[in-house]
Design a protein that fits this description.
Layout (H helix, E strand, L loop, with lengths): L6 E6 L7 H14 L3 E5 L12 E4 L26 E2 L3 E2 L4 H13 L2 E8 L1 H13 L3 E5 L15 H22 L2 E6 L6 H9 L4 E3 L7 H13 L5 E6 L11 E2 L9 E2 L2 H13 L3 E5 L11 H19 L5 E6 L2 E6 H4 L11 H8 L9 H17 L4 H18 L1
Parallel strand pairs: 1-2, 1-6, 6-7, 7-14, 8-10, 8-13, 9-10
Antiparallel strand pairs: 2-3, 4-5, 11-12, 14-15
Helix pairs in contact: 1-8, 4-5, 11-12
The structure holds 6-O-phosphono-beta-D-fructofuranose.
Length: 405
């Protein structure tokens, strides 16, 4: 056995988010206390090979980073190591790259590599694991769409940012009696829109999981008008589909990369303005949601992830990813965690609560559908002359209810 000092490596990959530095600090401090030296690779997986680029992490250079957004190590989204295209399609990592990484890990005496990233980045870690490179995963994404963990860090900070934006839009919307549309991130899942919409008093929330129509949004605006509230806040997730089923994206020439979403806020605002002839404005939060200091919740979560990732390395439980199963910190095989999205349940507690308060999802709720049908059928039945016609109408109404169900 070599008597060189054992090391733990850490890297941050994919889109950044608040809390990455807190993980790096958590890994460094807890690794050092167990007698390891800690090194951080630059720019995600890129720093592992050709050229190898890393920094020795210690108490000095990780001091004060707990509260800082971004990542002191840098990150790369879909670089040379990209192991997925879209959500599910596996891309094989070049074997020469894998061999290069293995060489780096052996030469630097790395006992385990902590890979911090979202679904795509963890898919890379999984291929490393299959190749025999000792890895553990730490889940990260502001979208909170990894099903193996209750929360990813970065999400709470993104929701706080979107809520703050809604608070600000609220007052200006009210002053000018305008419809304000706020576009937030959320590629496959509407967690940010849903949570910020509830916390920021949104009136309409549009998310990828619930189909919606412009008629139903207009109906909500008009209902508010009738109540004397001549402004409306609409929160829309960038990945919400338009009523005809398409997402709105920006041009993307790089076919190996995922489409860059964005622009749905403007599309929704323009259409509402056209239909309602009311002043409408759009705000796109974009990467503001990914910057700035992590919230208290994210600092605690990220620190725990860092410390528990080191525990996994120390126990040689490679190929596993830390997950938060409140109040416990657990782990699952990375292979089980990737490609399994956690999406908003349209019947779930948060959506139900929002509906109970009168927030519209641009669709018609079960209660609304039932009320509309009851109204429609009673009018139709009353207008019939004969009893046979009335029975016929009632049967048609029943059929319609079953269809809607
Ligand atoms: O996956 C997190 C996320 O913030 C998505 O919500 C968004 O579509 C994407 O990253 C943006 O990535 P980029 O920084 O490459 O534009």
């Amino acid at each position: 056995m070599s008597n060189k000092k054992q090391r733990i490596g850490v890297l941050t990959s994919g889109g950044d988010c608040p809390g990455l530095n807190a993980v790096i600090r958590g890994v460094t401090k807890s690794a050092m206390r167990l007698g390891y030296e800690c090194i951080g690779f630059h720019k995600g997986y890129e720093g592992l090979v050709d050229p190898v680029s890393y920094v020795t992490l210690n108490n000095r250079n990780t001091s004060g980073i707990l509260t800082q957004g971004g990542t002191i190590l840098g990150s790369t989204n879909k670089g040379r190591f990209a192991a997925t295209k879209g959500i599910n399609d596996r891309l094989e990592i070049d074997p020469e790259l894998l061999a290069g990484v293995k060489r780096t890990v052996d030469q630097l005496n790395i006992s385990g590599l902590v890979c911090v990233g979202g679904d795509g980045s963890l898919a890379i870690a999984q291929q490393f694991h299959e190749y025999g490179i000792p890895v553990v995963g730490v889940p990260k994404t502001i979208d909170n769409d990894l099903s193996a963990t209750a929360f990813t860090f970065g999400f709470d900070s993104a929701v706080a940012c979107a809520t703050d934006a809604l608070d600000r839009l609220h007052t200006t919307a009210a002053s000018h009696e305008r419809i304000m549309v706020l576009e937030v991130m959320g590629r496959h899942a509407g967690w940010i829109a849903l949570n910020a919409g509830i916390a920021g008093g949104g009136d309409v929330i549009l998310i990828p999981e619930i189909g919606w129509s412009f008629e139903n949004i207009c109906q909500k605006v008009l209902e508010r008008d009738a109540m004397g509230k001549r402004f409306t806040l609409v929160v829309v997730a960038e990945g919400a589909e338009l009523p005809h089923g398409e997402t709105v994206s920006q041009e993307n020439e790089q076919h190996e990369r995922q489409t860059r979403l964005g622009g749905i806020g403007m599309v929704v605002a323009e259409e509402l303005e056209r239909r309602l002839r009311r002043e409408t404005r759009t705000a796109v939060l974009g990467h503001l949601q990914r910057g700035g200091p992590p919230t208290t919740f994210d600092r605690v979560l990220a620190t725990q992830y860092g410390a528990h990732a080191v525990r996994l390395v120390h126990q040689r439980r490679f190929g596993e990813m830390i997950c938060y199963d409140p109040p416990a910190m657990d782990s699952v095989p990375i292979a089980e965690a990737i490609h399994r999205l956690s999406r908003v349940d349209p019947q779930g507690a948060a959506v139900q609560a929002a509906r109970a308060l009168g927030i519209s999802f641009g669709d018609r709720s079960a209660d609304q559908i039932a009320a509309d049908l009851a109204h429609w059928s009673s009018e139709a039945i009353l207008s019939c002359d004969s009893i046979d016609e009335k029975v016929d109408q009632a049967e048609q109404a029943l059929e319609k209810v079953l269809e809607e169900k």
